[in-house]
Design brief:
This protein has 5 helices and 18 strands. It is an alpha+beta fold.
Length: 261
């Protein structure tokens, strides 16, 4: 069986092997378990178990320390004697339900998004949605692609529909869209519009070109508005559509072009 990856580190500290402590190298050094995880092959926990079991080699030498550090390229990594090959990128779209956390496991025993996904291949979340939020969440086996997508310089616009109580006046929304500050740093201008208002509640649409931690919730809390629902409905031109809550589907290669800043 062939495994996937193209990253290749050098050797860990070992009297019979070259010294691999980071020095004046241009390449960054990473732990071997992290390299396997970043390759989209498995989680870091699983990678560490494989390494301790003697299943992983680097440059022909068996490595038993998951934290042994190697440069991120230019070495030959094997699992069960098979070379790691760069996998074809796979991207999955999930309609994350409320009440589910976006991590692999949870120390509090809360349900996670991985309870909803196929066991294989290993996919990492592309960004996060907090437990109380729902909507579009991507997963991929290509960490480099995911990192590029999430780069703040990309200004990928994400759209959210938010139900609040009580309704906010137009002038408050206009000020929030243009003059918000979080953590002593101005927010990028955003688009906020009312979708509908019914008595004591109001639905708003937020379009953000940045992704600060709990940004929408914190901005609304600052004006004494309670968030009842928060749903991510699109990323770039990729929309959640009619994908039901808790369901997922594979993204087609041509849909990746919709994820533009």
């Amino acid at each position: 069986m062939k495994y996937s990856l193209k990253h290749s580190p050098k050797q860990p500290p070992n009297p019979s092997l070259p010294d691999t402590k980071p020095g004046n190298h241009e390449e960054p050094y990473h732990g071997l378990a992290r390299l396997l995880s970043k390759a989209g092959l498995c989680s870091r926990t699983v990678a560490a178990a494989w390494i301790r079991a003697g299943r992983v080699g680097v440059d022909g030498q068996k490595i038993l320390d998951p934290e042994a550090r190697f440069p991120s390229r230019h070495a030959q990594i094997t699992v069960d004697g098979q070379p790691l090959l760069q996998p074809e990128r796979q991207v999955l779209m999930l309609h994350k339900p409320r009440g589910v956390v976006s991590t692999r496991s949870d120390e509090k025993g809360r349900p996670t998004v991985y309870n909803l996904l196929p066991a294989e291949p290993w996919l990492a979340p592309v960004g996060r949605l907090d437990q109380a939020s729902s909507g579009l969440l991507l997963f991929s086996n290509d960490p480099a692609w995911a990192q590029q997508l999430l780069d703040p310089q990309q200004h990928l616009v994400k759209t959210y529909h938010v139900q609040i109580r009580p309704p906010l006046a137009p002038e408050i929304l206009q000020h929030m869209a243009r003059h918000s500050v979080l953590d002593d740093r101005p927010c990028l201008p955003m688009q906020i519009r009312e979708l509908r208002c019914g008595g004591k509640t109001q639905w708003l649409e937020f379009m953000l070109a940045e992704g600060r931690n709990r940004q929408i919730r914190r901005l609304l809390q600052a004006v004494d508005a309670e968030v009842l629902r928060l749903i991510r409905v699109s990323m770039g031109q990729l929309i959640l559509g009619d994908l039901a809550s808790g369901q997922w589907r594979w993204l087609q290669p041509d849909e990746e072009a919709l994820l533009q800043g």
